[in-house]
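Record format v2
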Amino acid sequence: MISLTETLRQIADGRLTPQTAIDRSLSAISETDPALRAFVRFDPAAKAGTGPLAGVAVGVKDIFDTADFATEMGSAIYAGWRPKADAPIVAELKRLGATAVGKTVTTPFASMDPAETRNPRNPAHTPGGSSSGSAAAVAAGMVPLALGTQTGGSVIRPASFCGVAAIKPSYRLLPTEGVKCFAWSLDTVGLFAAGVADVAQALALITGRPDLTATGATPRVGVITQDFAGPPEAEGARALETAIAALERAGATVRALSAPAEFAAMWHAHPTLQAYEASRSLCWELMSYGQILTPKVKGELEHGRTLSTGHYDSVQATARAARAAAGKLFEQADVVISLSAPGPAPETLATTGDPRFNRLWTDLGTPAVNVPVYLAPGNLPVGVQVIAPYGQDGKALAAARFLERAVGRVVP
Amino acid sequence: MISLTETLRQIADGRLTPQTAIDRSLSAISETDPALRAFVRFDPAAKAGTGPLAGVAVGVKDIFDTADFATEMGSAIYAGWRPKADAPIVAELKRLGATAVGKTVTTPFASMDPAETRNPRNPAHTPGGSSSGSAAAVAAGMVPLALGTQTGGSVIRPASFCGVAAIKPSYRLLPTEGVKCFAWSLDTVGLFAAGVADVAQALALITGRPDLTATGATPRVGVITQDFAGPPEAEGARALETAIAALERAGATVRALSAPAEFAAMWHAHPTLQAYEASRSLCWELMSYGQILTPKVKGELEHGRTLSTGHYDSVQATARAARAAAGKLFEQADVVISLSAPGPAPETLATTGDPRFNRLWTDLGTPAVNVPVYLAPGNLPVGVQVIAPYGQDGKALAAARFLERAVGRVVP
């Protein structure tokens, strides 16, 4: 993988030019992508910019508007569609000197119908979704940074399956404008990079918050197993044990916390919140192109239209209660860890895997950082997500760096 | 003006067909708009739809994406630009049977540089902005419903200047997706119609909340004069006195409330919040087309880039404190009234008037409904806004209907 911080260090030291760094990514894409299919399209003549992120090649999930590339939302409805403007976060990256080298594969409208990307750790397995291409592009060493989004589990799960670091920041820390909406209460823009320090540096520059790169004191860690979402697979359970053992060896205090009842209620309510909003945000697509929507998207939109507004309002009340309960939970620990996925990536391209360990944290709007902690047979990584209170993204990143150092290098 | 509720009643009774109702609007636009310039473009062959809003012609502010019309954001940058999809709220209106007959004039990016629309009550005066065309199109009897947005005072002020009813609903009650963003913490989609019942019926259907059309008990009304924003003009002061006297005659209890200190702090902080976010949301436009941005937009974006993230965070904290203070304020009254503008529309097309009485309520995210209460010399209406707690749009609408009935017909 290409480390963003190391790339910038080499550029600062004069050992690398920004254009050479970009060209390295373009070569990697040319060589690797025909088999992997992480990119929908890329610019083989992409040029380096000027600024603190000069030399950083970025893969942009294909639901982010880009003025220089078609933006197809993973859907035939948008085949060849070319937006007028860059989404604000894409423009911000360019302003900082980064280069959007291409658009990464997304499942249709960032939903659950699978896409064509393979897992770079083991091509018979899904890379996860919906940010399939962004996770795979970083994991395969094509780019040091990629943009994704999470509505259920679309950043943290593919990061776990592909063995890369990623952050789903606090709700709306990164602007969602110019990003195709699925469910406005949930959609969260996230970042993929090789390691946690890389993710932190990118987020710090994009948001103008240099303190996000700070390391912290030894954290008090709570463990939430999300029993309401069902048990993990055997390899998932081993991954969580591995992380706990590593944290304890490194001197952290780790204790099991029981999830408040409000979390279970929210977890069960998530599909209603998502489907209701999706049926409104994709109203035009359902009305105009219902016959060519992929099956899972179409089913969810049609289901969303059967839900009453009163039901939706009750779910929003459930979400408020769960967020208040999360505030209390964090009185008992600096951060919480929980599995990023039930286990390693399934051996199939017919599904993107199960988001059941992700969706609660999207509902809560709390920052979550994936750290690869374990390698299952078949070269399949499993990650743990480090979660901090809403708005305390720096705390999540610092504790994730602590965990990453404690477990050591997981993926070869 | 064309009443939405009356139109639907006539259609239900068989006295009017949906297509005749649409054609009536198309004729009115053809006749009136060459002098008034409320529309950027319209479809002279627009067809009626099917559903509860069949026969309702809608004017759509030209920052809402429309698949069937170019969407130019009031800016040369977007000249001729044609989005792929309808914004969700536009699609929802069509799903309900309404017809988007055309796009209404907006100031550039819904900001403060004036546009070409004239005030239908007196063409030497501004109609207000930024939803200039939507307010004017309803006031001139061209359409029974129009969509606008408010970031500072862009729904309530033009409604006041043009003498129409309008609602700026609770923050995000109506989806902003597919609507060009200026400042994401503030941008609020709103509706213009002839009377408050018309606004209520449209909002009830769009949101699936039939209780928004309910009338309520005689309200306890608080009056907030917003002294921190400067005094009203003489005609504005008279308008507020007129509204208070009418409410008291109708049996409402009315008392002056003092604005909490947090309101003044937020009012002073508003420009920072708006400029910081606008400089991010319009990052692409500033980078790519800075030289053809209009002066006020360009100045605000460049100013926004000078503001530190720490300053922005402190303003967001100020906003949270002001919203909490608003919650307490409403323990003293069911609704609050405040002037919708300092006075009638100024005699100029070089400015859209002063939003100083609007921006606090946008910051608070509370629903605000404009009711025309007074006619100043020169046939110039002045409105009062009726404000309810966040999420209680039905309460604001019911009290606004009470006020509307109490003052009687204001515009000829």
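The mean pLDDT of chain A is 98.
The first helix of chain A runs from residue 4 to 12.
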